[in-house]
Amino acid sequence: xxxxxxxxxxxxxxxxxxxxxxxxxxxxxxxxxxxxxxxxxxxxxxxxxxxxxxxxxxxxxxxxxxxxxxxxxxxxxxxxxxxxxxxxxxxxxxxxxxxxxxxxxxxxxxxxxxxxxxxxxxxxxxxxxxxxxxxxxxxxxxxxxxxxxxxxxxxxxxxxxxxxx
Length: 165
Known about the structure:
By secondary structure, the protein is an alpha+beta fold.
């Protein structure tokens, strides 16, 4: 994965991953630690064949939340909690996954932490089921990077990193 880095000095707030998601042609921004955790979780969700595999691949915090959601759904359906050898299907076994309520959706989360100078480059839109999202056209990615650097963030440009969700 090739990344370009912008930013300067030691007065930086934090590192932000910025990229354009090809499926929606929208700019996606995530704090670096969130982006990598999100990528690990998405990898686990899309590659695990059993709960044991998912438990080995998922980041600890995300695993704990998935386990809680699965236990809640299993209890509601009067099913046993999944064992390591149970086939893994997040759509059927993890409450909220099929409805896109979990895991967090980056375009929704951007509203809560991106500076106003960046949010002004886009528009607040809404999804059919899950509330508001920040939509920033992919053609404005360099403007987003410039605004984030002006706000004191270090920026890594990586379309591949934001393509994981």
